[in-house]
Amino acid sequence: MEALVTRVGEKENPYLVEFYDVNCPFCAKSALDLWGDLLASGAYFELVYLPVHYAIWKDMGSPKTAEGSYLANLSAFCVDDPVQRVRYLLELFKITSSVRNEPKAIEEQLEYARGKFGDLKSCVRGKVGRLADDPELAYELAHEYALSIDAVVTGVPTAAIVDGGKAVEVKDGLGEVEDLIKKYLSGKRRAPS
């Protein structure tokens, strides 16, 4: 079973992998600042959902908020087209960015998702199978995926440049991730047509 990964473009080397959670305000800032540029670049990249905020809310004794965070993140997988999925994720990040109260933001994200997909749990189960009900497994798979490319994920956002199947550069934290994405993009600009 694979981690919850969105792959955009045709695979090439080197490429960018970013680990995210739509309820992470730092991920939201980075995504809103740079994912549009990533899409426009035509470069290959991967986005990997790491359920950090599910774990945070669960550890804080708020299972309903934890489950809502997980479901909001998984709702993106109801969008089949990878480019459209990234655009949908950006809409969820806009909610994270504009609503400063995380439980309230999660509720708004769930309302937005239900408006698009109807029965959200059914849609998610149909797309990600048993991962829909197993956030701990999703967390483990994301970390296994990171280890398979020799990257260590300590939080979100985390990004890595992968070359030849191995991470050659890994950055953690908002500024460092943004700089790494900009560096990646600077080498991937499309020639004017």
Write the layout of secondary structure elements.
Elements: E1 5-8, E2 15-20, H1 25-41, E3 45-49, H2 52-59, H3 63-74, H4 82-98, H5 102-117, H6 120-128, H7 135-148, E4 158-163, E5 166-172, H8 174-186
Parallel strand pairs: 2-3
Antiparallel strand pairs: 1-3, 2-4, 4-5
The oligomeric state of the chains shown is single chain
CATH topology: Glutaredoxin
Uncertain runs are none
The number of E-state strands comes to 5
Give helix and strand order, one letter per element, not per position.
EEHEHHHHHHEEH
User: Order of strands in the sheet with the most strands?
Assistant: 1-3-2-4-5
* N-end to C-end Cα span: 40 Å
Q: What is the CATH H-level superfamily?
A: Glutaredoxin
Protein name: DSBA oxidoreductase
InterPro entries: Thioredoxin-like_sf (IPR036249)
Organism: Thermoproteus uzoniensis (strain 768-20)
